[in-house]
Design a protein that fits this description.
mainly alpha; 244 residues
């Protein structure tokens, strides 16, 4: 049996954050990018967790609603440490939405219902990215965002673009099929019984694999090309639709 001490991981991550912070403080452009990304991070986490809560509620579980999670108030969804990780390391988390499987409607299996609740989070991030891309396209089309628009329009444009790419990245990251990410719950809905049982029995091992991928930056290298491809594809598609 593997023993996993979260204090060790948090210490390592804290060192990473401090290192990143020193880098930001010595580079004004990086610090500016960090500040511009704050709204996008809050939006990504909030819509992701709200989607989990909303889907669970629609499937018959009132747990999230009773805990006050059926809201778009970021304060109800943001985990302070996860927020810091997201801002400084690029991969973080919100407060997990609790789901009581006993309350879910029995029109489908628990595994399928759990998978739907899990998939709702990343899906919400992708939809949010598309909506903000449409917003950006409209602002460009009607000349709200222009080179001569001054500092204010530059800030607005940057915040919107960061919001798009952060939502895409958060959605892709959470689809990695390793616990505790949503992708693991989605995967289990499609595994045969014996494979599912083996996956659950070895969940701690997979959790450690995820931590290693995260700390070493391998997870980001997996997410980056997918995020970039989706970002480019969504931008180009919306640009063609709006003729810009």
């Amino acid at each position: 049996m593997f023993f996993f001490d979260k204090r060790i991981i948090y210490t390592i991550l804290a060192i990473c954050v401090i290192s990143s912070l020193i880098g930001y403080m010595s580079d004004f452009e990086s610090l500016k990018a960090l500040l511009f990304s704050v709204p996008g991070v809050l939006i990504a986490i909030t819509f992701h967790e709200y989607a989990h809560a909303f889907t669970a509620y629609k499937l018959g579980d009132d747990t999230a609603r009773d805990q006050g999670r059926l809201t778009l108030n970021p304060l109800k969804h943001v985990d302070p440490f996860g927020l810091i990780m997201f801002l400084f390391i690029g991969i973080g988390w919100g407060r997990p939405v609790q789901v009581d499987g006993r309350n879910l409607k029995r029109t489908m299996s628990y595994k399928k219902a759990e998978a739907l609740v899990a998939f709702a989070g990343p899906l919400a991030n992708f939809i949010t990215a598309i909506l903000f891309t449409v917003l950006y396209a409209l602002l460009v089309k009607f000349n709200v965002l222009t080179i001569s628009g001054g500092r204010g329009t530059e800030i607005i444009g940057s915040i919107i673009l960061y919001t798009i790419i952060l939502n895409i990245g958060f959605g892709v990251f959470n689809l990695i099929p390793l616990p505790p990410l949503d992708g693991s719950k989605i995967l289990k809905a499609f595994l045969p019984y014996n494979a599912n049982r083996w996956f659950e029995e070895n969940e701690k091992i997979f959790y450690i694999i995820f931590i290693v991928l995260w700390i070493t930056g391998i997870a980001e290298r997996i997410v980056f090309p997918i995020r970039s491809a989706l970002y480019t594809g969504i931008i180009e598609l919306v640009a063609r639709i709006f003729g810009i």
